[in-house]
Write a structure and sequence with these properties.
By secondary structure, the protein is an alpha/beta fold. The protein is about 30% helix and about 25% strand. It is built from ten helices and 17 strands.
Length: about 325
C-alpha cells in the first residue's frame, strides 16, 4: 500500500509502498478514503515536542474510511462500516480518568499517528473500541477535519460552558477556528472572530460571526468596545495571542487553550487573573461521544467544513503550505479509489 512515512525528524516524508498490517484482537483494518492534515502531524514529523513519536512513523489522526477486516473479538462493527480514526486511538478504560468519562486524559493512551501508525496511508489499523462511526449524511472529506479540528474545538467550548447570553471569541480562523466559531453558535453564544488575515476574516463573516476583529490593529481596545468576551478559545500556538485574549476577557471569563506553542511557555498577569476571577483552561481533543455529537451536528446541517483536497504524494508541499499560512482552513488527502 502507499503510505507517507517519517523516517527521520530532519528528513522529508517518503511516499512509498509498505506492507498492509493485519488487525489483531480488538482491532479493525480500515481502507482510508480521506485523511486530514493537522498541524500536529507536522510537529510529529519534525519531532518538535518533548515526547517524541515512534520512528518510522505514518502520521495522521483524521483518517476516515471503511472497515475491510475485523480482528478477533470484534462483534459490534462490521466489514463495510465507515469509521473515523481519531487522535485517541485507544484509552485503557480502567484508570480514574477513563472511568470518570475523561478518557482523553487516560494515563495509558495510544495516539493515532504518533505512538501508532496513522491515516496517511491506504490502509490503517484502528481499535474497535475507539473508532467512531460516520453517519451517511457526512462525506468522508468533511468527516476527516471534524475528527480532530472539529471535536477539539467542540470539546474545548463544552468545557468552558458558554451560556446563550455570553460572547465567545475565537482566535484564529483556520482548520480548528472555523469550526470552533460555528460551535460557538451551536451553543447559542454571540461570536467574535479574531485573525490577522483578510481572507480569514472574510471567511468568519461568511460562516456567521457576529463580529470580526483584525488583530493587526488594537485588538484589546476593539474587544472592549464590543463588550469584551466571556470565553476566549485560542486555536493558534502563539503566546502573544493567548496573552491578548486573556486581556480581552470579562470578569469570570474563561481562557481556553488548544494550541501548543513551541517554547511551551505562557506569561499571564496574576493580579488581573485573581481580581477578575479569570479561569485559564487547557483542553485536549474530545471523547468518542463528543465526536459522535460533532458528526450528528454536521449531518443536521449545523456546520460547514472548509477544505481543499490534495494527493498523498504532495504531503511535503502541503506541510509547507500550512506552515506558510496559505491554507484557507483544512487540507485533506484524498485516498478514495
Amino acid at each position: 500500500m502507499r503510505a507517507a512515512v517519517v523516517t527521520g525528524f530532519q528528513a522529508p516524508l517518503e511516499v512509498r509502498d509498505v506492507e498492509v498490517a493485519s488487525p489483531g484482537p480488538g482491532q479493525v483494518l480500515v481502507k482510508i478514503e480521506a485523511s486530514g492534515l493537522c498541524h500536529t502531524d507536522i510537529h510529529a514529523a519534525r519531532g518538535d515536542w518533548p515526547v517524541k513519536p515512534k520512528l518510522p512513523l505514518i502520521p495522521g489522526h483524521e483518517g476516515v474510511g471503511r472497515i475491510v477486516q475485523l480482528g478477533d473479538g470484534v462483534i459490534d462493527l462490521a466489514v463495510g462500516d465507515r469509521v473515523a480514526l481519531p487522535w485517541l486511538a485507544q484509552a485503557c478504560g480502567r484508570c480514574r480518568y477513563c472511568i470518570a468519562g475523561s478518557e482523553t486524559y487516560c494515563i495509558a493512551p495510544k495516539y493515532m499517528g504518533y505512538t501508532i501508525d496513522g491515516g496517511y496511508a491506504e490502509y490503517t489499523i484502528g481499535y474497535a473500541s475507539h473508532v467512531v462511526r460516520v453517519p451517511d449524511g457526512v462525506s468522508s472529506v468533511d468527516a476527516a477535519p471534524i475528527t480532530c479540528a472539529g471535536v477539539t474545538t467542540f470539546a474545548a467550548l463544552k468545557s468552558a460552558s458558554p451560556q446563550p447570553a455570553e460572547t465567545v471569541m475565537v482566535v484564529g480562523v483556520g482548520g480548528l477556528g472555523h469550526l470552533g466559531l460555528q460551535y460557538g453558535k451551536v451553543f447559542g453564544a454571540r461570536t467574535i472572530a479574531v485573525d490577522v488575515e483578510d481572507a480569514k476574516l472574510d471567511l468568519a463573516r461568511e460562516l456567521g460571526a457576529d463580529e470580526v476583529v483584525d488583530a493587526r490593529g488594537d485588538q484589546i481596545g476593539r474587544l472592549a468596545a464590543l463588550g469584551g468576551a466571556d470565553v476566549a478559545l485560542v486555536t493558534v500556538p502563539s503566546p502573544a495571542a493567548m496573552q491578548a485574549a486573556h486581556a480581552c476577557l470579562n470578569p469570570r471569563g474563561r481562557l481556553v487553550l488548544v494550541g501548543l506553542p513551541a517554547d511551551n511557555t505562557l506569561r499571564i498577569p496574576v493580579f488581573e487573573t485573581v481580581l477578575r476571577g479569570i479561569q485559564v483552561m487547557g483542553s485536549l481533543v474530545g471523547t468518542r461521544n463528543d465526536l459522535a455529537d460533532c458528526f450528528a451536528l454536521h449531518a443536521a446541517g449545523r456546520t460547514r467544513v472548509i477544505t481543499e483536497t490534495r494527493p498523498l504524494e504532495a504531503v511535503n508541499e502541503c506541510f509547507e503550505e500550512v506552515l506558510a499560512g496559505k491554507v484557507p482552513a483544512r487540507l485533506v488527502f484524498d485516498l478514495a479509489v
